[in-house]
C-alpha cells in the first residue's frame, strides 16, 4: 500500500523544509505566553482582592522557597543520568557478558542482513569512543559509531 503523505519521522527532502513550519510553533509558543500572563493576572487580582490575600501571597512565597531549597539539596543526590545507545555491529555470543562486565545493559538486538542493531542502556557516563573501544577489543566489528539516542 502506498502512502500519499510523507512520514513525519523521515528527514525533510531539503534543508529549508523544516523552516516553513517554524512560524506555527512560534505562534503557539506566543499564544501560550499570552495565556500564562492572563492566567497570572487573573489569579493575582483574585488573591489581592480576597480576604486572605497577603497570607496567600506569603504562603506561596514560602512554598517556592521550600521547593528551591529541596531542589538544591536533591541535585547532588539525584540518580545518575541514564543514556540509551544504538550500536550497529555483529552480535557475538559473549556480547552480554562483555557489556555486563562494564555495567552496560543490552536492552534488545534487532537483526539485519548486514549488521545487528544493539540497543544499550548505561547509568554512568560513556562516550562513543569508549563503547567503540570496548566492543572492538572483544571482537565486534562496528558498522558505524555508536549513537546516543537518549
Can you give a write-up of this model?
It is a single chain. With 150 residues, this protein is an alpha+beta fold. The chain has four helices and four strands. Strands 2-3-1-4 form a four-stranded antiparallel beta sheet, with helices on one face. Strand 2 and strand 3 form a beta hairpin. The chain is elongated, with a radius of gyration of 25 Å. The mean pLDDT is 82.
- Which band does the percent of strand residues land in? 15-25%
Low-confidence stretches: none
Average pLDDT, all residues: 82
Structural class designation: alpha+beta
The description of the largest β-sheet is: 4 strands, antiparallel
Number of helices: 4
Helix content estimate = 40-55%
Radius of gyration: 25 Å
Q: What is the global morphology?
A: elongated
**Strand arrangement in the largest pleated sheet:** 2-3-1-4
Features:
150 residues, 4 helices, single chain, elongated, alpha+beta, 4-stranded antiparallel beta sheet
Write a short abstract of this structure.
By secondary structure, the protein is α+β, with helices and mostly antiparallel strands.
What are the SSEs and their pairings?
Elements: H1 22-49, H2 53-74, E1 83-89, H3 95-101, E2 104-110, E3 116-122, H4 128-137, E4 147-148
Antiparallel strand pairs: 1-3, 1-4, 2-3
